[in-house]
């Protein structure tokens, strides 16, 4: 399942499902106000991202194939741009012939640039006005689980399924500004069922990452210390997020618990 909030009002929650469904839930009305479906050829919705400016969102869907884990069961990719006023598909972003599945999406602050991460370790950068890919580079030797723009948008963070974290320069493409090895928290057992994700705090200085353990790591970006760990759940931590302005973060666990923590 993938989730994202409509950015302007925060009243609509978009929900993407493994059976090709995309639902818009209105939190005020407490009901689904739109129920969409991807094409039958791409039934798994892996990620959804709403533009921070325009009334559009992009869905990353994938075909299916037989595989022993989550990544290996993903087939080819489809990136679709949807209009949130008409709730219709507007266009498909080009990825070439038989492209590997796209696992994670990230818009920059004005919605003009979209970053997409793939199972072959590639990062793709799209110009949304032109609807074209403008650049891309091989970032990981394994599938990429999560991708984020840095706070000043001169860099992009990527998390590989092998636990390697890189901060990439956008001014000097392919140059690594900072890295960490998160492999001890990326339990292969949890990766069979879900992908790991990460979140940056409001200042872009602390990076919170999901974990196959009961605690999740918090890394100091461009620092050399080991950073912090979250308070323990009783099972793997499967989702994380930061408050948009305050030093408060959220962790959700496979034990069905959610914890909100302040680091003041």
UniProtKB/TrEMBL annotation:
InterPro entries: Apc4-like_WD40_dom (IPR024977), WD40/YVTN_repeat-like_dom_sf (IPR015943), WD40_repeat_dom_sf (IPR036322), WD40_rpt (IPR001680). Keywords: WD repeat. It comes from the Eukaryota. The keyword rRNA-binding does not apply. WD repeats lie at residues 95-136, 137-172, 230-264. The keyword Calcium does not apply. SMART domains: WD40 (SM00320). This is Anaphase-promoting complex subunit 4-like WD40 domain-containing protein. Residues 97-149 form the Anaphase-promoting complex subunit 4-like WD40 domain. SUPFAM superfamilies: WD40 repeat-like (SSF50978). It comes from Populus davidiana.
């Amino acid at each position: 399942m993938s989730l994202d909030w409509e950015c302007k009002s925060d009243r609509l929650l978009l929900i993407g499902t493994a059976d090709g469904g995309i639902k818009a839930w209105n939190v005020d009305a407490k009901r689904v106000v739109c129920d969409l479906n991807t094409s039958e050829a791409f039934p798994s919705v892996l990620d959804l991202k709403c533009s921070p400016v325009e009334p559009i969102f992009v869905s990353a869907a994938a075909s299916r194939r037989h595989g022993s884990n989550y990544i290996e069961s993903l087939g080819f990719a489809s990136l679709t741009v949807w209009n949130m006023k008409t709730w219709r598909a507007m266009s498909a972003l080009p990825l070439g012939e038989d492209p590997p599945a796209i696992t994670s999406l990230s818009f920059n602050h004005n919605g003009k640039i979209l970053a997409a991460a793939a199972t072959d370790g590639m990062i793709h950068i799209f110009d949304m006005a032109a609807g074209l890919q403008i650049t891309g580079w091989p970032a990981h030797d394994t599938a990429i689980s999560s991708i984020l723009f840095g706070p000043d948008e001169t860099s992009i963070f990527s998390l590989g399924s092998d636990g390697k974290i890189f901060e990439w320069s956008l001014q000097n493409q392919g140059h690594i500004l900072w890295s960490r090895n998160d492999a001890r928290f990326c339990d292969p057992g949890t990766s069979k069922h879900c992908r790991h994700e990460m979140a940056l705090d409001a200042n872009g200085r602390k990076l919170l990452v999901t974990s196959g353990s009961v605690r999740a790591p918090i890394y100091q970006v461009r620092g050399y210390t080991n950073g912090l760990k979250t308070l323990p759940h009783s099972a793997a931590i499967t989702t994380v997020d930061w408050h948009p302005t305050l030093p408060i973060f959220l962790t959700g666990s496979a034990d069905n618990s959610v914890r909100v923590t302040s680091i003041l």
